[in-house]
Design a protein that fits this description.
Layout lengths: L4 E5 L6 H14 L5 E5 L5 H8 L4 E5 L16 H7 L3 E4 L2 H7 L3 H13 L3 E6 L3 H5 L3 H13 L9 E4 L13 H16 L11 E4 L4 H8 L6 E4 L6 H12 L1
Parallel strand pairs: 1-2, 1-8, 2-3, 3-4, 4-5, 5-6, 6-7, 7-8
The chain binds phosphoenolpyruvate.
Length: about 250
């Protein structure tokens, strides 16, 4: 039985004060219905790790470097994140692919760097609206999965998040049927990749998940939780999504 996981992606939002207040509300609620992790910006990670120490809330980063260390100004190595106390890292988010030109090869290198550092990667895949309208959605996500995972030395702790680009931050959500269809497809593709236990891997859905659509998405048999952007910045909304995941 796969345990539900709900991950907050706070993107480039927040201040020390807002992180303290948001984490204070989450920690006070001590959600246990599902596994929970928060992914603040790099500069708030150490604050979040300290606040969440000893709690059931894990902390992850939103990105990491492909390199283990070296002359990469502005980059943050996966080992630095692990050393700080992070447990997870998001790789291949569509905003990284779109605004920073990240290719599948770079995402694969980041994923390998994360695993080598002992972090559990959250690999994001998803098609654009144009790709879906052209009937290419399944081929696109299969290529992203294979591109990132084939040849990986180890896939310990890997979680895959299906995030249709057209649904991220837009208020548009894939219907439970659309999301389930893609999650079932992801499991089929994952089953062909060496080193992956497709039946056990948590598959998250991401794309405008809100309290009012979470329960219907989580009813789908292959949706094991969510990667939540906008709604994760409001404690009550995020906690309501976590509650729905564990129901
Ligand atoms: C995300 O950025 O991963 C995301 C799913 O954002 P939102 O929930 O705001 O669509």
């Amino acid at each position: 039985m796969r345990r539900s996981l709900v991950v907050a992606n706070w993107k480039m939002h927040g201040s020390r004060a807002s992180v303290e207040s948001l984490l204070g509300e989450l920690l006070a609620a001590a959600p246990t219905a599902a596994d929970v992790a928060v992914c603040p910006s790099f500069v708030h990670l150490s604050q979040a790790v300290a606040a969440c120490a000893g709690s059931a809330i894990g902390v992850g980063a939103q990105d990491c470097s492909h390199a283990a260390s070296g002359a990469y100004t502005g980059e943050v190595a996966a080992a630095m994140l692990a050393d700080l106390g992070c447990e997870r890292v998001i790789v291949g988010h569509s905003e990284r692919r779109q605004y920073h030109g990240e290719s599948d090869a770079l995402v694969a290198a980041k994923l390998n760097a994360a695993v080598a550092a002992g972090l559990a990667p959250i690999l994001c895949v998803g098609e654009t609206r144009e790709q879906r309208e052209a009937g290419e959605a399944q081929a696109v996500v299969a290529a992203q999965l294979r591109g990132a995972l084939e040849g990986a030395a180890s896939l310990d702790g890997l979680v895959v998040a299906y995030e249709p680009v057209w649904a991220i931050g837009t208020g548009l959500t894939a219907t439970p049927g659309q999301a389930q269809e893609m999650h079932a497809w992801l499991r089929e593709v994952l089953a062909e990749i060496p080193g992956v236990d497709a039946g056990q891997m948590p598959l998250l859905y991401g794309g405008s998940v809100k309290p009012d659509n979470a329960a219907s998405l989580f009813e789908a048999p292959d949706i094991d939780g969510a990667l939540v952007g906008g709604a994760s910045l409001v404690a009550g909304e995020f906690l309501s999504i976590v509650g729905a995941a564990g129901a």
